[in-house]
Design a protein that fits this description.
With about 300 residues, the chain is an alpha/beta fold. It has two domains: about 1-170, NAD(P)-binding Rossmann-like Domain (Rossmann fold, 3-Layer(aba) Sandwich); about 180-300, Orthogonal Bundle (N-(1-d-carboxylethyl)-l-norvaline Dehydrogenase, domain 2). The chain is built from twelve helices and nine strands. A nine-stranded mixed β-sheet has the order 1-9-8-7-6-5-2-3-4, sandwiched between helices. It is elongated. The structure holds NADPH dihydro-nicotinamide-adenine-dinucleotide phosphate. The site of NADPH dihydro-nicotinamide-adenine-dinucleotide phosphate has 22 residues, from helix 1 and helix 4.
């Protein structure tokens, strides 16, 4: 994995073409303009490029014209289908196509093959930020990249203008894979947070007093991510387990009863608790949560 948060700036800023000036595209465009990069933009609905034109961007009449304007072509459209539609008639030969449109690993791989067959070099990207974080070096915004290492290396300084960059591998599906895995973990956390707030919702507990406790507890639990990784790597799910599954499953009755007492649906909680119970029933009560991952993968394959 290549980390690249502070690459050397090029002698003269590289020209950039950007397709898509929605909320994210506009934020990217502003960051490149602010850093002095000559920028050509195109958007399906031309009116959305007007503010950027006022700030110094050249506006192309069509996607093909925009692609012709710069070797480095960044795409940030709604979804993979819109990328195919927008670039349908464009001549991609000799272009370095960087696709920051959110997609699946399979879409990333197919789009790479599609771009390569049209003479372009392809780099896929998954943005881990919301638009206000773009261009703010302190915000923690970053983009995961995969695909052509040569494109990443050649353009790393330009790509680092809007957000930190991290290269995760030659497989063009890996950026999306990592992106979606991280987003999925985030939604799991959001689900737990929603359940926790629901439990206190009708009580005389101020959410703003509860929030710091919640943040502190989630932070204290976050090292379990590394422990899980170590167990998955070693294949030993029982060595050094402190809170084994059998004990945890016994305790889940309290969690479910509390939800009932508080008049809260346990629908966000029960899928995980059910998996834990299944793993114990399968004879793995001496493990912690690592074995649930294999259960999930097997469940998907079954
Ligand atoms: P917006 O909805 O603001 O913009 C969508 C863009 O896609 C517009 O430029 C729109 O053009 C264009 N578009 C949609 N369909 C087509 C089509 N068929 N042909 C050509 N252009 C099309 O979305 P964002 O800018 O916020 O998001 C862009 C990408 O960035 C998405 O893949 C999103 O998942 C990703 N992203 C966004 C984040 C966010 O917080 N906003 C966070 C992380 C990733 P038009 O103006 O004509 O409708």
């Amino acid at each position: 994995m290549t980390d690249n948060t502070a690459p050397a700036a090029p002698a003269s800023p590289t020209p950039v073409t950007l397709l898509g000036t929605g909320a994210m595209g506009t934020a990217l465009a502003r960051a490149w303009l602010a850093a002095g990069h000559p920028l050509t933009v195109w958007n399906r609905t031309p009116a959305r490029t007007a503010p950027l034109a006022a700030e110094g961007a050249a506006v192309a009449a069509g996607a093909g014209d925009a692609v012709a304007a710069s070797r480095l072509v960044v795409v940030c459209l709604l979804d993979d289908a819109s990328v195919g539609e927008a670039l349908d008639g464009a001549d991609l030969s000799g272009r370095d196509l960087v696709n920051l449109t959110t997609g699946t690993p399979g879409q990333g791989r197919a789009r790479a093959a599609w771009a390569t067959s049209r003479g372009a070099r392809y780099l896929d990207g998954g943005i881990l930020a919301v638009p206000p974080m773009i261009g703010d070096a302190e915000s923690g915004a970053h983009v995961l990249y995969s695909g052509s290492r040569a494109v990443f290396e050649e353009h790393r300084a330009t790509l680092a203008v809007p957000a930190g960059t991290r290269y995760v591998g030659e497989d063009p599906g890996f950026a999306a894979l990592h992106d979606v895995a991280l987003l999925s973990a985030m939604y799991g956390m959001f689900a737990g947070v929603a359940h926790a707030f629901a439990l206190i919702r009708r009580e005389d507990v101020a959410p703003k007093d509860f929030a710091p406790l919640l943040v502190s507890w989630l932070s204290a639990m976050s090292p379990t991510v590394h422990e899980t990784a170590e167990r998955l790597e070693s294949g030993d799910y029982t060595e050094g387990v402190v809170s084994h599954l059998a004990m945890q499953v016994a305790g889940t009755t309290t969690l479910l009863r509390t939800a009932e007492e508080q008049g809260v649906s346990a629908k966000l909680l029960t899928p995980y608790l059910d998996l834990m119970a299944r793993r114990v029933a399968d004879g793995h009560g001496d493990e912690d949560g690592a074995g649930l991952i294999d259960l999930l993968v097997r469940a998907a394959r079954a």
